[in-house]
Amino acid sequence: MPSRPPKFRLDAWLATIALVAICLISLGNVIVRYATDASFAFTEEFSVFLLVVLTFAGAAVAARHNQHIRIELIEHYLPPWARKVVFVLQWLGGVTVLGIMTWYGSTFAMQEYQWESLSPGLGLPNWIYVIWLPLLSAAIIIRLTQNLVDRLRGREAPEVIHES
To answer: Which domain holds residue 32?
Structure first.
């Protein structure tokens, strides 16, 4: 077992902070609602926003560590040269989808900023919520690319055992 400390990963920390914030906001809202029969107005808007951040940051972490759901049966029975072709095709599919999300997400965020749209619940600028879509989609592209380079060089992560 290696003795060096784990590397600092911004996406992993972002996912962790989002999850902790969702838990604290929800717990606080439940306590306040139970004690006063009223609830915080911001909890739903912030919880949905944080859930999106958690999902995309978690997807970036999973992409880096080759942990996304896929069918690996074909990969295991291919010769090494064909396996590398499959790796590149998988990367290309992911980058295509995430590239489209980054492009349209940034266009949408720019429009929200230009039109000065406000969120319906709290009246905050919508671009604050929307800007995370293209940023985290680009982060997933970076992590997918890092994973592809590792897989092409033969530095794959150890096999993950899935228990059911």
So the answer is: 10-152
